[in-house]
Amino acid sequence: MTSLFSYKYRRKLDRKLTDYVYDKINHIPYIAYIVIFFHAMFFISLLTVLCICNKNTLYFKLYFGLLIFMILINKYFDACPITRLERKLLKNNNWYGFPYNFFFDLFNIKISKFRVAVVFWSISLLLLFICFYKIYI
Fold first, then answer.
1. Residue % of the chain over a pLDDT of 90
2. Model pTM above 0.70
3. Residue 27 vs residues 32, 38, 115: alpha-carbon distances, Å
4. Is 108 left (phi over 0), alpha (psi -120 to 50) or beta?
5. Cα–Cα distance measured from residue 129 to residue 76, given in angstroms and rounded to the nearest whole number
C-alpha cells in the first residue's frame, strides 16, 4: 500500500493533476499568460486583504483560510502545483513563478529551487505573523 505522504506518491499525484489540467486547457490561446495573471492576482489580493482588512471581515477570514490552505498545498507537493502548470504551459524549466522570476532578475540573483523556497517560506511566515498579530492584538 502506498503511503499518502510518501514522496513518490506526492510526485505522481502532482504529475497527474498537472497533466490533467494541462490537457484540458492547453488548446486555449495565451493560456499560460492567463494562468500566470490569475495566479499573480491571487497572490496580490492575498497580500492586500491580509494586510489591510479588519480581522472581523469575511474577506480576512476567507483569505486567512486560503493562506493556510496554500501553505499546506505547497508543503505537501513541495512546490506550488500552479507554478508547475505554468512551467509546463510555458515549456520553460527555469520558470519559478512571476514574483520570484521578477525579484531574482531585478536584483540579478541566480535563481534556484532552494532560494525560491526560502523566499516563499519567509513571505508565508511573515503573513502568518501579521495575521496572528491582527487576530490576537
1. 83
2. yes
3. 10, 18, 33
4. left
5. 21
